[in-house]
Amino acid sequence: MQGLNQSFIFVAVKLLELQTYFMTAARGIALVALTIAIGMAALNYAMTGTGLKESIIKILKAVVFYGIVLLAYPNIINWVTRTTFEWGSESTASVRSTIASDTSHIRNVAETRRMEDRRETFGDVAIGSVPNYFGSIIAEVPVGGRQYSMVAPAAALQSILLVSGECMRLASEQGTKRILGFGPEIPENMGLQIIGIVTGLFVIVVGCFAIIQYCVAYLEFLFVSSVGIILFPLSLWEGSKFMTEKFIGALVGFFIKLLFCTLCIFVMMWGYLDLAKKFVDQPFAGLADQIVMIVFTCLLFMYICISAPGIAQSLLTGAPSLNAAGAIAAAGTAVGAAATMGGMAVRGGLGLSGGASQVMGNVAGSLAKSGAEGRSTGSTIAHAAGAVAGGVGMSAMNTLRATGGDMARSLVSKTPFSQGANKHSAGQMFLKANQDGTNKSFGQFLKGQAATGAESSMNAAKTAQTVGSAFKKPKEDEPTTLY
Predict the structure, then answer these.
(1) Which of 50, 205, 214, 218 has the lowest CB atom count within 10 Å?
(2) Percentage helix, strand, coil, to 5, in the chain?
(3) Closest C-alpha among 442, 465, 430, 460 to residue 363
(4) What's the N-to-C CA distance of the chain in angstroms?
(5) Which residues, at least 6 apart from 5, have a Cβ–Cβ distance to it below 8 Å?
(6) Which tens digits make up the pLDDT trace of 224-274?
(7) C-beta pairs of 18-24 under 8 Å, 24+ apart in sequence
(8) How far is 385 from 451, CA to CA, in rounded Å?
(9) Cα(456)–Cα(438) distance, rounded to whole angstroms?
């Protein structure tokens, strides 16, 4: 995980190195601005004969102010980064002490579980096996003999992994089995496995969104402060002084934004640690109240972190920024991203594979039966094709509905084939025993699906021929019935 810090520090170092280059460029701009200021003061004195003393005083004050700020500028930026970290860590119930107390509690519970020979949670294993799980929550960016401080992204991500890992643990603990002793292995309880995977991915996605917001705010501050210094020398000339004032105002605004983002990331870490502590005391079992608690908590912290820049702007402008519409949009984004990632796990489930086999069985039955019935009744090729298409389409739609219903119900009932599931689904029909009590073989299952498809195709053939007969007057010697 420390590699994550190194990658972020590498980018931060490159942005801070821009500061040296643009400070050199600022000196050149200062010479131009100073020359213009002196020239304008001389021209004004030549034309009016007054104001020379006042102009010289203004220029000298601007030069002194520029020189002090330029010399102390790297220290000013260093102070801003260190101050935001210190204020954030000390104001949010002292994150350092919270991490120490929570990790100590988790270790104590882990020792108790080991002594009682009970199964450990993800937090027990992670914190118990790594002496210093979080490492340092501060990351130092060394540039030019100075240490620029920031929240370590790895520490924030590790607090998220404590919750996500507990959800994944539930999925990994579900054993596998072979149907009738052969074939591919499938999970014994796919519902709990899907719940664990989807919930774990949701926690990771939402947590990463929150961390990225802080990282972007930090890099944005470094970028603006490193390049924006070229606007500061414009204060030497009265005509361009307004641009320097805008830069100073922007620098203060970015400082407030970074402070809010730092506060929010520490609050988020505290929240995830509290969740992990709860799951250590009561392991995640895929219960509805646990899922709701995770989803609500994660969305709340993500929305707070994403809204931090808007809150900072509200402080500067006095206009409120938070609203329910923004929260709903943020929740929709997070749920959509997590659902996209979790879709692969759901699509790999037994219900979908069973649904596919049912479709294939129905296709085969439709082709065979429609051809035979077409020859026996004298129907046209168009009727047979219509029967096949109708049978296949209807079978596919019914199968997809049943399979999707099983998947949705499994997330609520924790078992993919519970009593509330569709009894006509592929999974239920495959697991249903024969009338004599024996389990169905794979061949019997396919044969049953082919029979179902044949019945559907026969019904479609009747409908197709009836429609065709409506457009053709039957001959006197032609029977008016189908069968």
Answers:
(1) 50
(2) 80, 5, 20
(3) 460
(4) 73
(5) 139, 152, 153, 154
(6) 999 999 999 998 988 888 999 999 999 999 999 999 999 999 989 888 988
(7) 18/223, 18/226, 18/227, 19/73, 19/74, 19/77, 19/143, 19/225, 19/226, 19/229, 20/144, 22/226, 22/227, 22/229, 22/230, 23/70, 23/73, 23/229
(8) 18
(9) 27
Return the residue matching tokens 């039966």: 369
Distance from C-alpha of 192 to C-alpha of 420, rounded to nearest angstrom? 16
Neighbours of 271 (CB within 10 A): 18
Q: What is the pLDDT of residue 257?
A: 92
Q: Report which DSSP code applies to 177.
A: E
Structure tokens belonging to residue 437: 């009590």
Say how many CA atoms lie within 13 Å of 292 toward its Cβ: 4
- Measured CA angle at 136 (ends 133, 142), to 5 deg: 145
Do 210 and 301 touch, CB atoms closer than 8 A? yes
* Position 136, amino acid: S
Q: What does the pLDDT look like over 86-116, one tens digit per residue? A: 888 888 777 778 888 888 888 888 888 878 7
pLDDT digits (tens, 9 = 90+) for 6-46: 888 899 999 999 998 999 999 999 999 999 999 998 988 88
CA distance 424 to 318: 60
Q: Which residue shows structure tokens 């029979």?
A: 451
Using left for φ > 0, alpha for ψ between -120 and 50, and beta otherwise, residue 138 falls in beta
CA separation, residue 387 to residues 71, 111, 373, 478 (Å) = 86, 67, 10, 21
The answer to whether 106 and 124 are in contact (CB under 8 A) is: yes
CA distance 12 to 151: 12
What tokens were used for 235?
A: 């204060």
Q: What is the Cα–Cα distance from 171 to 188, expressed in whole angstroms? A: 11
C-alpha distances out from residue 213 to 136, 269, 272, Å:
20, 14, 17
User: Around Cβ 375, how many Cβ atoms within 10 Å?
Assistant: 10
